[in-house]
Amino acid sequence: MIKVGIVGGTGYTGVELLRILVNHPDVELKVITSRSEDGLPVADMFPNLRGHTDLRFSVPDVQTLGECDVVFFATPHGVAHSLAEDILNTGARVIDLSADFRLQDAVEWEKWYGQPHGAPGLLPQAVYGLPEVNRAQIQEARLIAVPGCYPTSVQLGFLPLLENNLLPEQMLIADCKSGVSGAGRGASVGSLLCEASESMMAYAVKGHRHLPEIRQGMERAAGKAVNLTFVPHLTPMIRGIHSTLYAQAPGLAEDLQALYEARYANEPFVDVMPAGSHPATRSVKGSNVCRIAVHHHTHTGQVIVLSVIDNLVKGASGQAVQNMNIMFGLAEDAGLKQVALLP
Fold this sequence. Notes:
By secondary structure, the chain is α/β, with parallel strands linked by helices. It has two domains: 2-146 and 314-327, 3-Layer(aba) Sandwich (Rossmann fold); 150-311, Dihydrodipicolinate Reductase, domain 2 (2-Layer Sandwich), CATH 3.30.360.10. Helices cover 30% and strands 21% of the residues. Helix 7 packs parallel to helix 9 (211-222). The chain is globular and about 60 Å long. The chain starts with a strand and ends in a 16-residue tail after the last helix.
């Protein structure tokens, strides 16, 4: 059994990790931390876990965490900087769900996250945990940076075109909608029911902090600079991301479906839907699946890719567990076979 610790278990990604891991056939949960909730039974905060775990929150302790095989960080940005190296030095592996190690350029990270990077020396060993791209590196990794939710949806949607050098120099567009849980569990006016319900709004139009992460991944896939306009929107739903992606790919109308089906044929968590499909966010709610449909607009010649994920699962905690499975040589879908919730 793999001994698992979680740092920061009181947010949405933390409870989602717990929901997945309590039923994982190869995992023993050893410790979950929260400074503010020290001593509180986890099931008192999250009643859905009653009968599944008797763990109590505790203050983070490197020695205790180091007795685990792997430690997940489900913490705000900047927290993993101060603890990750000490935990790695114990021999435990680290899977970080925050953005602390996603960008390879520490200066770029500081620009977007508004604080100095606390562990630039760890960046060279951090592996970007998008399994559909970096599976081999994940197998050998000691430090994983789990991709963000928007970056997961956008990159998986564009990858087949980028990897095959099918996009000429142009401005690509990612028009993305997210549920309110993407803003986290902390109280904020914008996340209140009266503010977010029955309304939709764009935000961070001039530049969202996920933009450099998306661009970094796309440029690695393309082997060249990529021009991308990324506009996120807040929608009145709890979970889900819907990304509508636009590109010009001349002469590909007949081959698009085959291209996407071939690229993801052996990927357990990417579902390329039949031609003409329109995937809905509810079709992935609670699951680790990214559903993709690809269209060719006959009038404009544009390729339009529709990509949907659950932002808390494939966009966060589920993908983190997928990385853990790969790291430890387990079945990649272990603990991740949940069918999406309908309705």
